[in-house]
Amino acid sequence: MDQSGENINLSLIQNGNHFEFARLMDRYSDALYLFAKGILASSPLAEEVVSDIFVKVWQTRHQLDKVANIKSYLFNAVRNQAITYLRKQHSEVVSIEDINHYYFEPIDAPDESALKEEQLRRIYKAIDYLAPQTKMVFSLAKIQGLKYKEIAELLNISVKTVDYHVASAVKKICESIDKEEDGKGLQTLSLFLAMSGC
Amino acid sequence: MDNIEEKYRLLARQLNGELNDAEHELLTDELNQDETFVAKQYVLQVFWQKFFPKVKSQSHERIMTDTMKRVMGIKEVKRPQMTIWYSAIAILVVALGISLARNLLVDKNNELIQYVANVGETKKVVLPDGTKVDLNAGSSLVIQKDFTADKRQVILTGEGYFDVAKDAEKPFEITTSHLKVSVLGTRFDLKAYADEDEIKAVLDEGKIQLDGEFNKQQPVFLKPGYAATLNKNTGELQIQPHKQQSAEQWRDGKLVFYNHTLAQIARILERRFNARIIILNDEVKEYRFSGDFSHANLFELLGYLSAARPFTFETSGEYIVISK
Predict the structure, then answer these.
(1) Are residues B13 and B109 in the same domain?
(2) Domains of chain A, first to last
(3) Which residues belong to any copy of the HTH luxR-type domain (chain A) (predicted)?
(4) In this complex, is the C-beta atom of A198 within 8 Å of any C-beta atom belonging to chain B?
(5) What's the pTM value of the predicted model, to 2 decimals?
(6) Counting C-beta atoms within 10 Å of the first and last residue's C-beta, which end of chain B has fewer, N or C?
(7) 3-class SS at A113?
């Protein structure tokens, strides 16, 4: 998902080209959707947030020449919108630092999978047990493919803190690979239950 | 904050492409001292590069089409089984890829009409020329509004059974992501779902011509009773006699499998029952099943399959998770 927006021509969108706008959505909607879903833990809400953001981009398209980096702009907008939703439900949530849950979307193993099922299960479990902020930073790096600097700006934290969170996640995953096998079936179930927020 | 050893910071930075030359040397030193760390580095690299959540095409398409409808301020014009919307543009970008969609849309008259069978339903439509099309679940058919031009052009994503009205003057052309079908008057099934590896045409009557990357010069024709299967990954086209009647059966609401893999069945069930299914185990994905499951609901069906060849399935939130 780490694709740069270089060949999306924003001035075409600014001039009202629907086709280029569709390309912009096609490029970023999956990454933005997973970020929104991470915060909101709901597919319909995440779809709504991402759609709202793109509608806003279209409505304010005549100002697109002022946007230096469309990727950062979109992620920032999704963060704000998702937090606004959360605030309505939990008044104690005022900014992205306050989230106490981050949903990590289950991963479909690729067909020519090079990892054993047991290894994968341990990795998922380790990710599942990460602290919410660590899980969010880790996801933004691993899934959305953002650079440390981009994550730092998005979450309003230092690059050093980003470095700490990703390293901490990598450490936990490394340690989990060592652990002995225990109660295989139960593990998967509880893992998925935990990940789906039940 | 916990104390994190330097090697994990270095490894994390390497995974994310943040490592500079000096750090690269430090990491190499760490790896040289510790064989178990080398093995872990390998696992993490594979995981980092190859394993991603698969966003369901339904979510992707919903975001694109909803947004398109909203920005174009177009209300769906409700007619029996028909909606007119420009968001067909978004669908085309998703289903056909950018370049193919661009070619089709550069046309001066690019007003499009779209017929949709949503997930969980099938639909019968009649086109302006009298052609009848049955659309299978999760399929869409786009036609140019100016359907009376010199060619009758339609775009299919998903599966449709076509009974094409005869008109020797105006050939009927169906475009899919990897294959174009040209016909005069005939009956056939064409399956071209975006999330499947194959595109398949089964001809009942008449004659159809197939064009795509696989034939640069010679046209390929299909005769009644034969099926053509195009593998999207290899580009290989196979033509074989068609023995089963599976092409017909979905139209009667039946659900029949002929030596289908569980991975294929999962996609069919997702469309038919509006479910989300994840298969964790690669071996289980390849299990093959046959049988008529027309009267079973989703969980009965999974129960029957797992009784025939054991696997476990659990619901978890909005997913059904299948493992060994």
Answers:
(1) no
(2) 10-98 (1.10.1740.10), 117-195 (1.10.10.10)
(3) 145-172
(4) yes
(5) 0.59
(6) N
(7) coil
